[in-house]
Amino acid sequence: MASPLGMPAVPPRTPDPPWRTAWDSALYGPDGFYRHHAPADHFRTSVHGSDLLAEALLGLARHHGLTRVVDVGAGRGELLLGLHRLDPTLDLLAVEVAPLPPGLPDAVGWSAALPERIDGLVVAHEWLDNIPCHVVEVDGAGRPRMVHVDPATGRESLGLAVDDPGVPASVGGWLDRWWSLAGREPGARAEVGSSRDQGWAGVVARLGRGVAVAVDYGHTREQRPPYGALRGYADGREVDPVPDGSRDVTAAVAVDSVAAAVGGRVLRQREALAALGLSAERPPLSLATTDPGEYAARLARASRVADLTAAGGLGTFYWVVSGVGGVDPWPAG
Ligand SMILES: C[S@@+](CC[C@H](N)C(=O)[O-])C[C@H]1O[C@@H](n2cnc3c(N)ncnc32)[C@H](O)[C@@H]1O
Q: Is the pTM of this model over 0.90?
């Protein structure tokens, strides 16, 4: 088709979507990253490489007499495989958008959907940070505005102000309560955590009797990242967070807001693992002479626990823990 001046008509540009829409397609659309990529091929989490996290969660389940474990956002089933190795009698279910990976034992069930009701321990390990959010940024006049993004290039533009009637009131409401940008300088940003709150509340609502644990990296009101926490990862390294389906797109979780949505308690991973009996204490040196094999095994274990509890590393991850059906969720009360 040609224009009246004889020039080829340029099709009008489709407006860029807001971040939440682009992010959702990039991870979970038909060509989305998580439809085709195993998390462990791109980054390591605490469930890769050792069964220590599985051991701690097994201790929590046993403390409450729970024999069923549901893992939401289960990756390739690594955590459940660890639990199965430790206790083959457990009833295990992975809830995961990716298809069933080959070679998983029959004892690990696999589903794209949550069960209607869960009696047991429900875990989400590094799931919430992958729930897409709206992103907002303070413009040159000091107004927080919706950030839009070109999915192919990651080029951003500012859309409506968050208090515009065209923006869901929940965006401004969540920001006012949890991550206020009032009075902040141009360029200050936030990810709107209401989608994570709703996501986790939707899981916990299915718990009949049991304990829910969401583990993730995040922040609380006292230490929000001033320019937001949107990141991209691919092939083991950090890359620009372009929502083109080729990479993981993630942002740290406002864990205090998630906890408030489910009446949960927030702990750091190092506190949680210590309460569940995992110690990074090294074995006594004398053991190296009396039983060198045992010494080496205990030293290796202590170093793996140290990795999971490191200050400034995985130890600063958060656990949001809640109990349902009369269960006091935490062994220490
Ligand atoms: C960062 S990975 C974490 C995997 C694993 N839990 C771990 O810690 O290694 C997030 C996982 O959540 C899955 N996921 C995201 N949204 C989901 C949903 N609504 N239902 C089921 N799985 C989901 C993704 O496919 C991906 O495997």
A: yes
